[in-house]
Amino acid sequence: MRRANAVISMAVLALFLLHAVMGGFVTAGFMDGGSVFMKGMAWLMVTLIIAHVAIAVKLTADTLIALKRSGTSYFKENKLFWIRRISGVAVMIFILFHIMIFLGNNDGTYRLNFFGGAQLASQILMVLSLGIHIVTNAKPMLLGFGTKSWKELGTDLALILTGILLFAGICFVVYYLRWRMI
User: Fold this and answer.
1) pLDDT tens digits, residue range 16-54?
2) CA dihedral 137, 142, 144, 147 (to 10 degrees)
3) Residue 162 burial (CB count, 10 A)
């Protein structure tokens, strides 16, 4: 199950990186957002995220049952475990906001929804929670694939992720400023 979750996580990560770059160009006004490819990619990613969440809930439940059986939780020793779970829940909440904000398709024509300060804040928080979630889960994902040099790959992944998340955050700000000028 952990191996399947690693494969799903890698697919979600690849789709996310592509979605973030393409979506950044859309929000910055350099690309049309109503393409069939963008929609299909986004909904495939949602489907994979649902599978990832289902596996994560099962694995978390198994862990909590084992902790209860042992009689101690070792909360201090399991901080990273809880950071991963809490950041995952935060990501889910902000993804729902993201879908509600950017699901603006009526009658086959792409229409933008209002994007004010609250929407900008939710999207910046999504970018931050995604960064935390991906960085804290990169090592187990890479180890799940049997990577022996996970530090080098993890550093490369962190560099790419930081650049793309920074790009996405800037594009959300540009989108917000575009709305302020309308």
Assistant:
1) 999 999 888 887 777 776 677 888 888 999 999 999 999
2) -160
3) 12
Q: How far apart are the first and last CA of the chain?
A: 49
Q: Report yes or no: 28 and 179 within 8 Å, Cβ to Cβ.
A: no
CB contact set of 6 (below 8 Å; sequence gap of 6+): 140, 141, 144, 145
Question: Rounded to an integer, what distance in angstroms lies between the CA atom of residue 149 and that of residue 140?
Answer: 12
Catalogue the E-assigned strands of 44-149.
Answer: 105-106, 109-110
* Cβ–Cβ < 8 Å for 55, 5: yes
Distance CA 180, CA 182 (A): 6
Q: How many CB atoms lie within 10 A of CB 160?
A: 12
**Strands 105-106 and 109-110, sheet pairing:** antiparallel
CB 89 within 8 A of CB 77: no
Q: How far is Cα 85 from Cα 92, in angstroms, rounded to an integer?
A: 11
pLDDT tens digits for range 98-122: 988 887 655 554 556 678 889 999 9
